[in-house]
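Escalated from tier 1: zinc ion holo job.
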Amino acid sequence: MFSENKNIYILGIETSCDETSAAVLKNNELQSLVIASQKVHEKYGGVVPELASRAHQQNIIPVVDVAIRDAGIDKSKLNAIALTLGPGLPGSLMVGVSFAKTLAWALGIPIIPVDHLLAHIMANFIVQKGESKKLPSFPFLALIVSGGHTMFVRAEDELTLVTLGKTIDDAAGEAFDKTAKMLDLPYPGGPVIDKLASQGNPLAFAFAKPNIKGLNFSFSGLKTSVLYFLRDQLKKDPEFIQKNLHDLAASIQYSIIEILIEKIDLALKETQLKTLVLAGGVSANSYFRKRLQEYATTQNIELYIPPPILTTDNGAMIAMSGYFKYLHQQYAPLDIQPYTTGSLAF
Ligand code: KG4
Ligand code: ZN
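Tier 2 regenerated the structure:
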């Protein structure tokens, strides 16, 4: 799976949403990672596309510059530049894609188009400097749980995914973010709920559970159930949220994670796969990680979750996916254009 006798240096650039990030990998070993998170969206309760692309324009040069410097190499050492081609916000994608094309042209090296979803999964193959750890072996079941996606895929190899099920409405991360907004918490709500929940009772309040067959998901019923519950309680006590914030966060988090765990159990049983790989921002959730470890131990499942920094959007996962494509010489011409929906990998 890895290059045997030559070190390959890949620069990965990620600008699909609200994180400007760049990283350098030597084969699958992380040399540097820079992530500039855009604080500007916090007060809007969600990502504002216009502001995102403007912030990417401001950040991209220093972010890439520091990533190369931190890696301790000269840019002439890079073998290729991997970039997120999609899916994502068009204005945001365009900044990273244009920058990568220009730098690759100047250095005379190829660009490698990477699918953001595939890259989230491939984050599980990254090792830290000097670290040797067991890596997932194909085929495996992967759950992508992010702000934009919640889906099961069967990963056949480093380049090929088959969709097994996905959300029919909101993504799990969206469920965190939208319910957090109802609690007057800043965007993105997932990490804030995670923190508050650690001091709350997960069984304090019960919310609606979806009744979706097979390996698909639904989170909109839960969201509406939280909305109506809060509306009713606030009529009785306008300070209900402040008084019960920890219990509300813990109960919402518990409801979302239990939906995910139930489906994971079903997916592993249906596919008979024994390896589960997590990907995407929601897999940073501390309760989810703990719950999955317990589940994997009791069910004898091999579980892989990237370290929290590599679960949310980052350039390292783009470089990792780019490395695998580099070994198959899957380069792209310099006139390639980003895509906002769909996927390269399915
Ligand atoms: O993968 P990601 O960075 O971006 C997308 O591709 O969407 O995921 C972002 C999502 C957001 O919805 C955010 O609230 C959620 O991941 N998230 C979390 C946590 N950290 C990030 N959700 C729950 N608990 C967390 N600790
Ligand atoms: Zn993502």
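The chain has ten helices and ten strands.
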